[in-house]
Amino acid sequence: MTMRGFRHQVANLSYVSDKSMQVTSLDQHLVLARIKGREEALADRCANRGAALSVCMIVDGQFECPYHGWRYEGRNGRCMIIPNLSKEERVPKTYRVPAYAVEESDGFIHIWSQGDGAPETASPSLAPDALGPETRDAALIAYPYQACIDLLLDAPDIILNIPGVAIVNQHRFGDPSCTADEIDVRYAAIPASRRGKGLASDYPFQVRIRAAAHGGNAHVLLTRDNGNTVAAAHMTFAPVRRTLCTILAYGSRTEQQGSERPMHIGIKRVIDPTAARDAVDYVSRFLK
Ligand code: FES
C-alpha cells in the first residue's frame, strides 16, 4: 500500500527548538529543527557520505553536516555550500537530500510522508465534534508509542479516562472493521460504580474507537445505549523517546444533565502494567 499523502506525528511541539533533533516517521529517521520560526525536516542522511544530519549544527538557517560541512536548505533539501569547492566551482543542483513537508497542529509536529514537497491534500481536521463545552487533556506516558496505540485498540480502559465510566475491555460489539485507512471497533461500557462486580448483562454505554491505520490519530466516541452521544475526542499519539510518548485528547462533551456528572474523554496518567500485559492483541494486529 502506498504511504503517500499520510501525515505522521513525530514530536511534541514543545520539544522542538533551533537545535537539530532526530525524529522517526514510518521507520525513517529525519532531522527536525525550528529555523527562523518555522519547523523544517530533512532525511537524516547526508548526500555526501551518508552521515547523520541529526547531529548537525544550524548555521545561517541551514543544516550543516558535522563531517565535511556540506550545508542544506531545510525547505527543499538542496545542498547550498560545499566548503572545499574552489571559487569557480558551483554546487550541482542535484546534490540534495529529501525534504519533508512539516505541519504544526494541536501542539504536535506532523510530517507528510511523501517527502520533497507540500502535501497534496488538506490536513484532516482535528476539530472536535461540536457537542457542547470543549475538552482537552494531554499526558506524557512512560510507555512506548506503538504500544500505547495498541492498548487503545485492544484494551481502551487502560488508556482512556472517562470519569464515571468503566470500559469493558473483554466485551466488544462484533468484530473490528478494518480498511486500508482505518480500524473501527466498539466496546461496551458500564458506570464505574459497577466495576469489578461480576459479569454485566446490560451495557448503558458504548465506546467507539476509529484509529487511523497510519499516523497515530484516533477518534473516540462515547454514546448511550439509545445512541445519543455523550462525549467525543480526537486523540493524537506522538513518540518522545523509545519508552515515552505523548497523548493529546481534544474533544467536547454534552452539557450537564440534571445531577449527573458531565463525562468527557481524557487520558490516564499511568499505564497499569498488569492489565497491559494481559491485553489481547486481537484488534491491534490489524495495524501490523
Ligand atoms: S558526510 Fe556530510 S559532508 Fe561529508
Keywords summarizing the entry:
Alpha-D-Glucose-1,6-Bisphosphate, Chain A, domain 4, binds FE2/S2 (inorganic) cluster, mainly beta, Rieske Iron-sulfur Protein, 4-stranded antiparallel sheet, 288 residues
What secondary-structure arrangement, pairings included, does this model have?
Elements: E1 7-12, E2 21-25, E3 28-35, E4 38-43, E5 57-59, E6 62-64, E7 71-73, E8 79-81, E9 99-100, E10 102-105, E11 108-112, E12 134-141, H1 145-154, E13 160-161, E14 165-172, E15 177-178, E16 182-191, E17 205-212, E18 217-224, E19 229-241, E20 244-253, E21 266-267, H2 273-278
Give an overview of the whole structure.
The strands form 5 sheets. Strands 12, 14, 15, 16, 17, 18, 19 and 20 form an 8-stranded antiparallel β-sheet that branches. Strands 2-3-4-9 form a 4-stranded antiparallel β-sheet, with no helix packed on it. The protein has 2 helices and 21 strands. The two termini are 13 Å apart. The model is unreliable at 117-128 (pLDDT under 50). Helices cover 6% and strands 41% of the residues. The protein is mainly beta. It folds into 2 domains: 7-112, Rieske [2Fe-2S] iron-sulphur domain (Rieske Iron-sulfur Protein); 134-287, Alpha-D-Glucose-1,6-Bisphosphate, Chain A, domain 4. The longest helix has 10 residues, at 145-154. FE2/S2 (inorganic) cluster (FES) binds at residues 46, 48-49, 51, 65, 67-70.
